[in-house]
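Quick question: what would this complex look like in 3D?
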Amino acid sequence: MAKKKISLLKEFTKGLWDENPVLVMLLGLCPTLAVTSSAINGLAMGLAVLFTLTASSTIISSVRKIIPKEVRIPTFIIVIATFVTITDKSMAAFQPILHKSLGAFIPLIVVNCVILGRQEAFASKNNVGRSIVDALGMSVGFTITLTVLGAIRELLGAGTIFSLQLMPDSFVPWMVMILPPGAFITLGLMIGATNWINARRER
Amino acid sequence: MTIFTIFISAAIINNYVLVQFLGICPFVGVSKKLSSSFSMGLATTFVMTMAAAVTWLIYYFILVPFNLQFLQIVSFILVIASLVQLVEMFIKKMSKPLYDALGIFLPLITTNCAIMGVALFLVMKEYSFIESIIFGFSAGVGFTLAIVLMAGIREELEIADVPEYFKGAPITMIVAGCMALAFMGFAGLI
């Protein structure tokens, strides 16, 4: 921990852009592509990840000193799976429609590499406070990316954002955008744009 | 549902990678070379088939009788993780050349969400034991198909004139989009 002290604010903002889990680190791509057929689905998925990641990071970082190194991965997975179960069951109870449209991707958060990645790379090495800030930053970055991706696909594929009609009536929806190919192509363009912006900033 | 329908449906129509978006991480990460992507596909198919069988047994003989279905996620991920470990040790003892060929990809399979997806879907779709094994196997074949196709295209892309900022992941995504578009043509086959 005695490496370099980064301010808490930096710890939070790095997840938003510099180390954005989806656009820069290319982690957690499966849910990113699968659920973002609309902005609201993207937002919901992001919030589910926010809860799971923050809760797991809190637990892992507070018990990090008593976990033997050899069994750390199974330990992380059990903690994550527990919180995913909580998320899954409470979503099914309070938001049944949303839960249905996200389908198997809520239970699949357990194998989302963003979460396991943060435990391994950050929570198991840092104190509780920093881990929470890091988890929040990462998941907010994840949520924003998913919501933007969902909004672009919903706007072009259905003419709406959050079910609000934005395009004029004469607009013919591009069906392909809400189908699987649209997800791949939009994300590809977004990652390309990120590379371009980063390259320009460095100059 | 006949076994053949399950096979076609899981391997091609609902291709795990291109239609259901499962297992994207290895699909992007390991599709640089044809040979390694084929090994990855084989290892995944193997673990998927085993995982389908074991999770089916666990679900219907342990979780359902004791009314513990809510432990589904926790128990499945543990089963898969230990299964991968077991398979790794088994292959190492039985066939050294195969072990060397699979190398690092074997342990990485634990975090492949396609395996977990197979386990969750076979419960959701209420398949029988035999159907589950066929389902796991065909999902693996579909994964292998997608990753090998992608590796073939990416080897060609190496020498193509791709815009600088789109090299690597972005162009892979866009190519995957085109492949998904092609695979949509299979919809309605059954």
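Answer marked as accepted. Residues 3-182 of chain B form one domain.
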